[in-house]
Every structure is written in structure tokens, then in C-alpha cells.
Design brief:
Elements lengths: L1 E9 L3 H8 L12 E6 L4 E8 L2 E13 L3 E9 L3 E11 L2 E10 L3 H10 L1 H20 L10 E2 L1
Length: about 150
């Protein structure tokens, strides 16, 4: 199993960063590998991604969601086997640390080699930089879901 942990500090309040992260359908605006996400219901999403030139689809289920603290998920079907968590840490009233941890099982030679040489780490780091630029340039979230999920 491969793992990536990356962090970025964003110059917005924790509530703003968290609220934006709950807007899954906006992810293609800052996550380079995401082509689309459909929010099926409060805890289920359907993803279409392009990883290394390969189109994939999978479903994911939110397993834990605590406003202004964390969002965790597991894939539930499709081409990918992964789990992850995003945590939000208030550094100051106007600065938030966003940390992403992603665990997955690489398939095929290209994914295994990419994971071994850190291609995935670089991609996640770049996408967090894109999130930072997106949320800081707008200064506010595009929506919010403040419900809790605890399994």
C-alpha cells in the first residue's frame, strides 16, 4: 500500500477552508486529476479521474466528517482502492493548515513505479497549492455542508 501525506497553509479561516473542501463537485477546479465528482447523497460520491493518462471511475463513501476538523473517506467500488483523510488546523484566526493523507494500492507497473519515486507526492503537493491559490483568490467558499458523519 502506498501513502502520501502533504500539508499546505492557507490564508483563510478554518471554517472557510473546511466549507470549500465539502464542495466535492468543485474539486476539478483545483485537483488536476479529477475530471468530475457527483455528490450522490450526504455521504456518497462518484468520481471520474485521469491518473497517468488512464481514465478511471470509482465511488467513495465519507466515513467521518466533523465540521472544521476533518473529512475521511474510503473507496467503495470501481477501479481504485484507496482511503484518505483531510484535516483542518486553525493556526490563527485567518490561517489554516490543511493536511491530506491518502492511502492506496497502486495497480500496474506505471503506478507502482510512480509511487516508488514520489510522483504521487508531487501531484498531491501541487494540487494542495492549487487549492491554496483557489481559496485565497476567492476569499470565500463556494458553498458549505456542515453536517456530521460518524461511523
Amino acid at each position: 500500500m502506498a501513502q502520501v501525506i502533504e500539508t499546505v497553509d492557507v490564508d483563510v479561516p478554518v471554517t472557510t477552508a473546511y466549507n470549500q473542501w465539502t464542495q466535492f463537485e468543485s474539486f476539478p477546479r483545483f485537483l488536476s486529476f479529477v475530471k468530475s465528482i457527483t455528490q450522490v447523497d450526504d455521504v456518497n460520491t462518484h468520481w471520474k479521474v485521469n491518473i497517468g493518462g488512464v481514465e478511471r471511475e470509482f465511488d467513495a463513501r465519507i466515513t467521518e466528517q466533523l465540521p472544521d476538523e476533518r473529512v475521511a473517506w474510503n473507496s467503495t467500488g470501481g477501479d481504485d482502492n484507496h482511503a484518505g483523510v483531510v484535516t483542518f488546523h486553525k493556526l490563527s484566526p485567518s490561517t489554516t493548515r490543511v493536511t491530506v493523507q491518502l492511502d492506496w494500492t497502486p495497480t500496474g507497473v506505471a503506478e507502482k513505479v510512480g509511487a516508488a519515486v514520489g510522483v504521487d507526492d508531487h501531484a498531491i503537493k501541487n494540487d494542495l497549492k492549487n487549492f491554496k491559490e483557489f481559496i485565497e483568490s476567492t476569499g470565500h467558499e463556494t458553498g458549505a455542508w456542515r453536517g456530521e458523519v460518524q461511523n
